[in-house]
User: Which sequence fits this backbone?
């Protein structure tokens, strides 16, 4: 991975800064959701549903070897949702946290969420869902860091 977690977050902040109002930003979230790679049907199971989300969000993770020799293994996420904006939210999280080490995922604060004004513009249910998705990703990272 070429970008640091901080750089990945800054890219999102810069992208959203170019968008005018929140209508444009919601449309951007929907577009990001459409670009999210499809999750394999066999992963759309009860145990992969994120608890605490009003809409259905499936999230899986696996520990994979990095491409270059000597690098630490990274966590690879796949996700999907049956709600477009929620799918965009999980796409943002995947974009920032995908293929990072468990340690990076657990220790780096995700500042982009507040910096793009996301938390204040989401309904309480979506905001709770965003927190639940992030918590699930950190739980995967914690589990893999113990291996």
Assistant:
């Amino acid at each position: 991975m070429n970008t640091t977690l901080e750089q990945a977050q800054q890219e999102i902040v810069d992208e959203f800064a170019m968008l005018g109002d929140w209508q444009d930003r919601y449309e951007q979230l929907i577009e990001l959701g459409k670009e999210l790679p499809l999750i394999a049907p066999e992963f759309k199971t009860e145990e992969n549903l994120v608890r605490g989300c009003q809409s259905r969000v499936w999230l899986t993770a696996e520990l994979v070897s990095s491409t270059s020799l000597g690098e630490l293994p990274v966590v690879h996420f796949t996700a999907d949702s049956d709600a477009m904006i929620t799918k965009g939210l999980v796409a943002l999280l995947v974009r920032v946290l995908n293929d990072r080490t468990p340690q990076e995922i657990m220790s780096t604060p995700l500042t982009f969420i507040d910096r793009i004004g996301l938390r204040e513009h989401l309904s309480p249910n979506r905001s709770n869902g965003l927190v639940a998705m992030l918590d699930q990703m950190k739980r995967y990272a914690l589990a893999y860091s113990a291996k």
Remarks:
- The mean pLDDT is 92.
- Residues 97 and 125 are 22 Å apart (CA to CA).
- Helices lie at 5-17, 22-35, 84-97, 102-107, 112-115, 118-121, 124-145.
- The first helix runs from residue 5 to 17.
